[in-house]
Design goal:
The structure holds three protein chains of three kinds.
Chain A (H helix, E strand, L loop, with lengths): L1 H25 L8 H42 L5 H39 L2 H7 L4 H39 L4 H11 L2 H28 L3 H34 L1
Helix pairs in contact in A: 1-5, 1-7, 2-3, 2-5, 3-5, 3-6, 3-7, 3-8, 5-7, 7-8
Chain B lengths: L1 H34 L4 H40 L6 H39 L2 H7 L4 H40 L3 H11 L2 H27 L4 H42 L5
Helix pairs in contact in B: 1-5, 2-3, 2-5, 3-5, 3-6, 3-7, 3-8, 5-7, 7-8
Chain C lengths: L1 E10 L2 E11 L4 E5 L6 H8 L7 E6 L2 E2 L5 H8 L2 E4 L11 H5 L6 H7 L5 H14 L16 H13 L5 E5 L7 H17 L3 E6 L2 H7 L2 E6 L2 E7 H6 L3 H13 L2 H5 L1
Parallel strand pairs in C: 3-8, 3-9, 6-7, 7-8
Antiparallel strand pairs in C: 1-2, 1-4, 4-5, 9-10
Helix pairs in contact in C: 5-6
The chains are: A mainly alpha, B mainly alpha, C alpha/beta.
């Protein structure tokens, strides 16, 4: 039973990587750049996620400040370092990872469900018979749209989280906005901006490929769509966490 | 301007309807569980099923999340020459905040989505109607075990996940940051104690309840074939994450207060 | 006896049933015919209280099901067996567990005044399976492993197992081969004649209706178009019924058509 499960896992990973390869190659093929579909994808994936991401990261901002304040108060008996600490935590990690995980839930699930439904209702076979490459038509536009959306989303989310963190710090812990801006200047630089953007692009590239790979594997009606969606969300979450670790390690070693 | 107003009112209306229907559903589930007998066995079965299924994922994520926190905290703490606090800060962050949050995200993806899909499939293929017509209450037969199974599993997974994460972090701190494991362990009690763990358990139960209620509700009320099941799964994933982050804000304050009270009580009111 | 009194049901702006009133007497076979989306399945779901009407009353055995609580409905449901459009077998249970599902409920035990032991349950399951031409070799199989036609027959056996006095069929023969279709129709007929089971059958199949129905009800745009015995329906002048009839007659061999 375990070996069967392992086979299945290896097969899935193979499919994900090969799909990643074929999507990657299409970047250099002119006919894959269907701008109409890409714009549609950005509207659906990116703009559609903004309210969700904004609401959830604003709450995250509030929580982060409260938590850090509690820790500072508890150990150092001072809350002076809140600005520096929160700014770094948000811009380096939390302002990126939390929205990314929510992005996984939203985009991963909806892309897999959509592609999976097309698969089980034989729409993908129909596309092939019409001479349209499903990767060109379904995966590539989502891939590009997701990269763009995810990169923008990381920036928006960090900004929202930070704004809310400042809001709490000013109102509850009586900091001046100036102190915060000073802390930002001292601790945060272009390299953090670059790291955040890189993470956003990497997550954005990985999520739609995993989601589509699971969608294509989908079989057996409504139940198949559900199972595929579940697996895709979990795999994407794990992939995001793992890549986050690798990138964090790489950046802390380089800079 | 009136357009925007219209969108906002519609959004508020939809949110109220959505939250209200979930709450009514949860109320019905709890009432059913309280008024019927023979629920214990299926609930225990669900708990073991959910916990075993999710444990590998939770363990994997726990180690990596712990590792990320170690790296990030180390960078910040080095600036203040406060590396001694790494173990404490890392453990405290995992126990109080990141642990419950990440575990419930994973639970939402793995079990929440699966439950919504399973129940949705049963709904659209008329299996739920069939159960009802055969004289069995589908809420008792299908929902009660899943609901309580998820809630209690989230607690079990939290305790196991936190343990794995702390051990993993200790290892990573040694290998990547050169921090002595003993030093790491010594810093832990400065920030965390049993009250922290109790608070964290409370949080994780709240998130577990969110996962269970939204997933069961979405699945149970799905309609419209394969597309409908897909929609139920997607929407449950989206709403669960949103609710959890919102609940996080409120529970954090509650838990902080509770922990303070706990300290106070333990120290006989000295501090 | 089942009685509908002025039942109205709408989904959003669309009225599916409008002032529908009819009666099914004990032991009778009533076919409900009509085009898709005319509220045939909705009518069935009202009888067991899975759906509630917007207005009007529905009586089963003289008891009003529209005003019942879920708990009271359970006792009504235990006298009604419903056969769904889909096989609706529980995926996580095997054939034996599916068919015996209705024999383990508290309502059933209550109606029997005792709990059946495993031996009795098995006998009953095998007996019902043989009614739908299935043997004991199928007991341990899981629903996805057997063919669609078999699933539908298992589903029928599951409905028959608790011994309902009303049978509600939602397109029982859709997706079945002609031989099984005939077997199912004969079974409905036999149950009604031998055991005085009352059957309400929702169908598209005029040929079956003409063969075994006592009475036929034709639903159209939000209301009853016609109700009557087979010969009354045949004489009807409504265009839709004539269309249905001529379609059906065209399929029959010439000597049958003459009847």
């Amino acid at each position: 039973m375990i070996s069967h499960w392992l086979d299945e896992q290896i097969q899935t990973q193979k499919e994900i990587f090969s799909l990643f390869g074929s999507v990657g190659l299409r970047v250099f093929r002119k006919e894959a750049w269907r701008f109409h579909e890409i714009i549609e994808g950005i509207v659906k994936i990116g703009i559609g996620s903004i309210p969700m991401i904004a609401i959830s990261t604003s709450f995250a901002g509030l929580v982060i400040t409260n938590e850090i304040a509690w820790h500072m108060d508890h150990v150092l008996h001072t809350v002076e370092m809140i600005p520096g600490f929160t700014a770094q935590a948000i811009l380096r990690e939390l302002g990126i990872a939390i929205p990314a995980l929510i992005f996984v839930g939203k985009v991963g699930a909806s892309v897999t469900a959509e592609v999976g439904t097309m698969k089980v209702t034989e729409q993908i076979d129909a596309l092939k018979l019409l001479g349209i490459d499903p990767i060109d038509y379904l995966v590539f536009p989502n891939f590009i749209a997701s990269i763009i959306s995810s990169a923008c989303m990381v920036l928006i989310a960090s900004a929202v989280t930070l704004t809310c963190a400042i809001f709490v710090a000013v109102n509850r812990y009586h900091f001046g906005i100036g102190e915060y801006l000073n802390a930002l200047k001292n601790f945060v630089g272009m390299k953090d901006f670059f790291c955040a953007l890189t993470k956003g692009v990497v997550f954005g590239a990985v999520i739609p490929v995993i989601s589509c790979a699971y969608g294509f594997r989908c079989k057996g009606g409504a139940e198949g769509v559900g199972t595929a969606t579940t697996n895709s969300v979990v795999t994407s979450t794990i992939a995001v966490i793992t890549l986050d670790f690798i990138l964090t390690y790489a950046f802390t070693s380089i800079f | 301007m009136s357009e925007i107003l219209k969108i906002i009112t519609r959004f508020i209306h939809q949110s109220v309807v959505e939250v209200g229907s979930v709450l009514l559903f949860v109320f019905k589930v709890i009432k059913t569980a309280a008024t019927t007998r023979g629920n214990l066995r299926p609930i225990v079965q669900q708990i073991s099923y959910v916990s075993f299924r999710s444990l590998p994922t939770v363990a994997f994520a726990g180690i990596f999340v712990g590792a990320i926190m170690v790296l990030q905290f180390n960078v910040i703490l080095v600036q203040y020459n406060a590396e001694v606090f790494l173990g404490g800060l890392n453990t405290s962050a995992v126990v109080r905040e990141i642990g419950p949050l990440i575990i419930s995200f994973l639970l939402a993806g793995k079990i929440g989505a699966y439950t919504a899909a399973e129940l949705g499939t049963m709904r659209v293929t008329e299996q739920i109607d069939a159960i009802e017509c055969l004289g069995t209450n589908p809420i008792q037969y299908l929902i009660v075990p899943r609901f309580f199974g998820i809630v209690i599993s989230s607690l079990i997974l939290l305790l196991l996940g936190v343990m794995i994460s702390v051990v993993g972090s200790m290892f990573v701190a040694k290998v990547l940051c050169g921090i002595n494991p003993l030093q790491f362990l010594n810093a832990i009690p400065r920030f965390t104690n049993y009250w922290t763990l109790a608070g964290s358990s409370f949080k994780s139960m709240v998130y577990g309840t969110i996962v269970a209620s939204v997933a069961c509700h979405r699945g149970y009320t799905a309609s419209g074939g394969a597309r409908g099941v897909g929609k139920a799964v997607t929407l449950s994933a989206v709403f669960i994450n949103l609710y959890i982050v919102i609940a996080d804000y409120f529970t954090t304050d509650i838990v902080s207060t509770l922990i303070e009270l706990g300290h106070h009580w333990m120290n006989g009111g000295e501090n | 006896m089942i009685r509908f009194e002025n039942v109205t049901k709408s989904f959003g702006p669309k009225t599916i049933l409008k002032n529908v009133s009819f009666e099914v007497s004990t032991g009778e076979i009533l076919f409900i015919l009509g085009k898709s989306g005319m509220g045939k399945s909705v009518t069935l779901k009202h009888i067991v209280g899975v759906m509630k009407p917007d207005s009007g009353k529905i009586y089963v055995d003289g008891k009003d099901v529209t005003s019942m609580s879920d708990l009271q409905l359970e006792s009504v449901r235990s006298t009604c067996g419903m056969v769904f459009q889909h096989p609706a077998l529980l995926d996580s249970l095997n054939v034996y567990q599916n068919v015996s599902f209705g024999l383990r409920t508290p309502q059933f035990n209550h109606a029997m005044k005792r709990t059946l032991n495993e031996e009795e349950i098995k006998t009953r399951v095998l007996e019902k399976l043989s009614l739908v031409n299935l043997g004991p070799e199928i007991l341990e199989r899981m629903p996805p492993e057997i063919s669609y036609g078999m699933q539908k027959r298992v589903s029928l056996a599951r409905t028959l197992a608790p011994g309902p006095s009303y049978l509600l069929f939602d397109e029982p023969t859709t997706g079945l081969d002609p031989i099984t279709t005939n077997a199912v129709n004969d079974l409905i007929f036999e149950l009604s004649r031998k055991l005085k089971v009352t059957s309400v059958v929702v169908s598209h199949d005029m040929a079956c209706a003409l063969k075994i129905a006592d009475r036929i009800l034709v639903l159209d745009q939000a209301g009853i178009l016609a109700i009557g015995t087979v010969s009354e329906i045949k004489r009807s002048s409504e265009a839709l019924i004539q269309d249905f009839l001529s379609e059906t007659l065209a399929l029959l061999p010439p000597e049958e058509r003459a009847k």
